[in-house]
Amino acid sequence: MIGITITPNKILYSHFGERGKALLPNQLHLHVWEPIQIKGDVSLKRLLSLLEDNLDVWELLLQENIKPFISELQKPCSRPTPIEWIEVFWEAIVDNVDDEKDFDMAPTICGKKKKITTEDLDSSEFGVGLTPLNNIAHLPIKLNTKVKVRVLTYKDDNIDVNVLDFGDRDFTVLEFLKALFMEIGFFGTPEKREEQLKLLMESVRQAKEGETIPWEEVKKNIEERIKQRKNTLNLLGDNNDSTQNS
After folding, report:
1. In 82-98, which positions are buried (b, 16+ CB within 10 angstroms) versus exposed (e)?
2. How far apart (Å, rounded) are the C-alpha atoms in residues 76 and 50?
3. How many angstroms separate the CA atoms of 189 and 198, rounded?
4. How is residue 12 annotated by DSSP?
5. Each residue's pLDDT tens digit, 6-56
6. Which of 147, 65, 56 is nearest to 105 (CA)?
7. CA distances for 228 relative to 89, 182, 221, angstroms
8. Which of 16, 93, 120, 227 is the most buried (most CB within 10 A)?
9. Which residues share a beta bridge with 94?
10. Cα–Cα distance, 191 to 91 (Å, whole number)
């Protein structure tokens, strides 16, 4: 494969069929538009440790506050997790409304575990945006390059869902890392994430006790996440186009 290969103990770079050459972690930022693959059990902690030598550069490239998460990785695990691995995959959707189609595709991540039965489906995927990194630092990272597009067609009060298989598409280094930090950094720093978790738990308490949860708060969070994802897609697309044309 042409591009970057990350293993448990090295980084390799292959170019046009050449045998992979070893890269130092402080050289990885020079290859952000190369496709990436992961071989072997590469943990989240191992992966993020590759960024430590150039944190300021990576923060500029990813437009994310990385340093607090690197520090959080060094803490001991405080709570076991049912998650068995972290998966990066393509989220692709076509909204078909009144014959107008809106297509959106972005790399995203979730925590996963093996399904025991078909009834276990609901508990086989987990969000990790509210999870302290020290509790999932040991988990391996897997890349799922299959592109399955969900076509949503709205008819009256119903939604028809048709899934189309579009084959495979590799992730670039930048797409992969951006998806990772968009998820783990969605609520801000680890401190701000803990604040959001407390608010969420309070909302759960209110729901159980029959108190009203303002819809505007929920709507605001959803709209902010959608806006952030679209802005990131536009940024990645513009940068990719400019790089290829240069």
Report:
1. ebebbbbbbbbebebee
2. 20
3. 14
4. E
5. 999 999 999 876 778 999 999 999 999 999 999 999 999 999 999 999 999
6. 147
7. 18, 9, 11
8. 93
9. 103, 151
10. 28
8 A C-beta contact, residue 58 and residue 51 = yes
Query: Maximum CA pair distance of the chain?
Result: 64
- Collapse the DSSP code of 169 into the 3-class scheme (helix H, G, I; strand E, B; otherwise coil) and give the result: coil
Q: How far is CA 92 from the centre of its chain?
A: 14
141-179: burial string, b at 16+ Cβ within 10 Å, e else:
bbbeeebebebeeeeeeeeeeeeeeeeeeebbbbbbbbb
Q: Residue 135 is which amino acid?
A: N
- Rounded distance between C-alpha atoms, residue 159 and residue 10, angstroms: 47
Q: How far apart are CA 182 and CA 82, in angstroms?
A: 22
pLDDT, tens digit (0-9, with 9 covering 90-100), for 172-188: 999 999 999 988 888 88
